[in-house]
Every structure is written in structure tokens, then in C-alpha cells.
Write a structure and sequence with these properties.
Blueprint lengths: L4 H36 L3 H21 L4 H16 L4
Helix pairs in contact: 1-2, 2-3
Length: about 90
């Protein structure tokens, strides 16, 4: 455990940030799972709606610094490609 006052504060801040990042990451994973589920059910409209929600949440996570910008871009790209495979 840290001994200096500044190190103790840093440890407290890191714990708060870890919990905040964890919730954002979990939300992104759940939304990605929802999109994949819609694609497997072959419901184009539902998949497109969920894809828009996923894009927003993934971009927001990248903006907050929870995930890297290029990771967010890759996730969005792969989901878009997957949704486009559904026949209309």
C-alpha cells in the first residue's frame, strides 16, 4: 500500500476511474452482443437501430478514453460490415 499522501490520493482516484471505466466497457460489450443477436435473427431494422446505438456508445467510450480510438473504429467497422451482410 502507498505511504505518501499523494500516492494515497492517486490510489483512490485510480479506483474510482477503474469502476467508471468498467461500467462503460460492460455497456459497450452488452450493446455489441445485442447487435450480433439481431443479426443472427435476421432482423435488418432492429439490427440497424441497435447499430446506431452501438456506434454512439462506442464513440463515447473512445472519447472518454476508456477504449482506444482505433479500437472503437475497428469495432464499429466490423459491426457495420456484419449488419450489411443481412439480406433486405
Amino acid at each position: 500500500m502507498a505511504n505518501h499522501k499523494s500516492a494515497l490520493k492517486r490510489a483512490r482516484q485510480n479506483e474510482i476511474r477503474r469502476l467508471r471505466n468498467k461500467s462503460v466497457r460492460t455497456r459497450v460489450k452488452s450493446i455489441v452482443k445485442d447487435v450480433r443477436l439481431s443479426v443472427s435473427e435476421d432482423s435488418k431494422e432492429a439490427a440497424l437501430k441497435k447499430l446506431d446505438i452501438a456506434k454512439t456508445n462506442i464513440d463515447r467510450a473512445a472519447q472518454k478514453g476508456v477504449i482506444h480510438k482505433k479500437t472503437a473504429s475497428r469495432k464499429i467497422s466490423r459491426l457495420s460490415k456484419l449488419v450489411n451482410t443481412i439480406s433486405a
